[in-house]
Amino acid sequence: MNVKKTALATLAGGVVMWAAAGLWHKVILSGFYENATHATHEGVGVILLAYLVLAALMSYMYPLGYKGGSPLAEGLRFGVLIGILWVFPHELAMAGAHGESLLYPFQNAAVHMVEQGVGGVVIGYVHGWPALNN
Q1: What is the model's pLDDT at position 22?
Q2: Which one, of 118, 44, 125, 51, lies nearest residue 86 by Cα?
Q3: Where are the domains of the chain?
Q4: Which of the four pLDDT bands, split at 50, 70 and 90, describes residue 28?
């Protein structure tokens, strides 16, 4: 494992996904989230920590599944898969537990496929950066 690449990919991917989450949840789709769920997102620091943990896991796992394609294609494929694996089962269970609409888990998973897809691309580019091979 290349520690420099993993650390830089964690930081870059985590910050990009956190910023994308803020953009999606607080600006672009703020009305959807206010109406779809009763949850509030007041712990910005905790949310950043969560995205850094997610990015660390993604940065560690990315080289294990790398298939030799371009950082864009491989990172996007990987990130979209992580977005589905990370969010969809949990949201589906929560919809059942709280009696919420089954539409919400699908919509939120789609948002996270984009969000983690972007993070995966960033992580893919950092892992593919030849200057960090030493």
Answers
A1: 86
A2: 51
A3: 3-132
A4: confident
